[in-house]
Amino acid sequence: MLAIYDVVGHATNGLYWPRRFRMKVRNWGGIEAARDYLNPKKYKGTSEGFERLKNLSQLQHSMEALVLRLCYSTLFTPEQLAVARQRLNSSGYAP
To answer: What whole-number distance in Å separates Cα of residue 42 and Cα of residue 85?
Structure first.
């Protein structure tokens, strides 16, 4: 999860560096940070970072896209995966 910071920064040519995400991952750990962001009771809709990635056409680098990859999806509940999928689908991105 921490690698998202560098990947996004470089993919957006420095237009967006997800500092809040990096801080949360450092404080909570990657899996717990992702689980928290995928909590629909806590986060209604999408985050500011998700919207920035959407506007930059870089949703493939979002945490939501990452957790849906087969190698990570087993770490999350079906409900958390559904939240990630719904956010991406409602933004026009099909993982």
So the answer is: 17
* C-beta separation of 61 from 11 below 8 A: yes
Q: What pLDDT sits at residue 62? A: 96
pLDDT mean across residues, the chain: 94
State residue 1's pLDDT score. 85
Phi, psi for residue 11 in degrees, rounded to 5: -65, -30
The ranges assigned to domains in the chain are 3-90
Q: CA dist 76 to 58, 67, 84, Å? A: 23, 8, 10
- Contact, 12 vs 74, CB < 8 A? no
